[in-house]
Structures are given as C-alpha cells and as structure tokens.
Specification:
The protein is an alpha/beta fold and 153 residues long. It contains 5 helices and 6 strands; from the N terminus they run E-H-H-E-E-E-E-E-H-H-H. The chain has one domain: Mannitol-specific EII, Chain A (3-Layer(aba) Sandwich), CATH 3.40.930.10. Helix 1 packs antiparallel against helix 2.
C-alpha cells in the first residue's frame, strides 16, 4: 500500500478550526482503511499539537501522529478553502495541511523522515508558490507525489 494516494488528497477543504480539520482528515484516513480509530489518532495528533505547533509557517502545517491505531504509514495533503488559525511559528494562518500517520511499530524515524522531506520541500519558494496555485485534487496529488518521489519509505 502506498503512503500517498489520490484518495488522500483534498482540495477546498471547508473547516473552521485546526481541531475540526484534524478530525475531518482523520476520518478520511479511517474511510481509506489507514487507521482503526478516528478518536485515538485524533487525540495523538492533538497531544502533539499541544506540545508544539506543527504550523510550519507561510500557510503550511505538518501535523502528525504515531499510534497503534495507524494500520499503514500515510500522508494526507489538503488545501483549505479559507485560511485557519493554527498557532503557526510565524503567526500566520494555515491553508495547506500535510497530515502524517505512522504506526507505533514503525521504524523510529519513519515519521521524522516524512516530516523532513516535506519541510525541506516547503523551504523552496517555488514549491510554495506552485502549491498555492493548485486548484484541483488531481493536480495536487500529482504535484505532491512528485515532491515526495520515492523518498518516503
């Protein structure tokens, strides 16, 4: 099973808070048989959010959860219809969310590798500009797939 598929891509996500967004994206993981419990995964992601913000800056966030509720390492890419308050490092609202789900028994650094690859790409101004211009799920899927390539194991 691939980490990232078209089914895990959302464009024009209509949510009004960080909590609602994480809940909706957790439900998407559940619907795609990536997690066994929306609540367990959601609680783990929110626990991490309470420890430190995953708002990367410039409109991007990389929330993540590592729990036994995760069946298969997964990545959800979502573009919000309206910017969300996220408590980001730069104080700006978030429009793009890359939610990472990793099983407890996964190699210790799996989620760190995923975060690192995404964060590295999000340092590139051209990548951020391209992502902001995307307006279809198909286009978002293909662009993110290209960004992560075969690097995430």
């Amino acid at each position: 099973m691939e980490i990232f598929t078209k089914d895990l891509t959302v464009i024009s996500l209509e949510t009004s808070s960080k909590e609602e967004t994480i809940k909706v994206l957790s439900a998407l993981l559940y619907e795609n048989n990536r997690i066994t419990s929306i609540e367990t995964f959601y609680e783990e992601v929110m626990r991490r959010e309470d420890e430190y913000t995953t708002g990367f800056g410039e409109g991007f966030a990389i929330p993540h959860g590592k729990t036994d509720a995760v069946i298969h390492p997964s990545l959800v890419a979502a573009k919000c219809q309206s910017p969300l308050e996220w408590g980001a490092m730069d104080g700006n609202p978030v429009t793009f969310i890359f939610l990472i789900a990793v099983p407890d028994e996964a190699e210790g650094a799996t989620h760190l590798k995923m975060i690192s690859i995404l964060a590295e790409n999000l340092m590139d101004e051209k990548v951020k500009e391209n992502l902001k211009r995307i307006d279809s799920e198909e286009e978002l899927y293909h662009y993110v797939k290209t960004l992560i390539g075969g690097k995430i194991i």
